[in-house]
Amino acid sequence: xxxxxxxxxxxxxxxxxxxxxxxxxxxxxxxxxxxxxxxxxxxxxxxxxxxxxxxxxxxxxxxxxxxxxxxxxxxxxxxxxxxxxxxxxxxxxxxxxxxxxxxxxxxxxxxxxxxxxxxxxxxxxxxxxxxxxxxxxxxxxxxxxxxxxxxxxxxxx
Length: 157
Hints:
Blueprint: H1 12-15, H2 19-69, H3 78-86, H4 92-100
């Protein structure tokens, strides 16, 4: 006896979805897409509303602190006002002094300037000799473009 094999034949027409189910799938996917778009739109509206509310609350907080500490605090930033609020005992004179004071700028530390020793002058009694050494003909031609080179830095040649 040989092994038992079961042969299954597929009907190609049975595998393809009927045309009406394709249409139903499109309708369902469009409905899902619309629900997702609507959800995203609602989330964006909520975010914008919360951002406006947050801004309004920050402005109200600033006005409350300005009223509490007086008109001299109008020049202080929001962060400075919050620091004043965290301070345990702040008097109105301290607030006035703080508002009159300019913003602090930290000094930039630079490296201490050291004098470079440089070259020392040669003694004046040493004899001076000037030698002009001409270059060889192959050294007087530029290696890149082939043009004749020029003397740079000499006044009378």
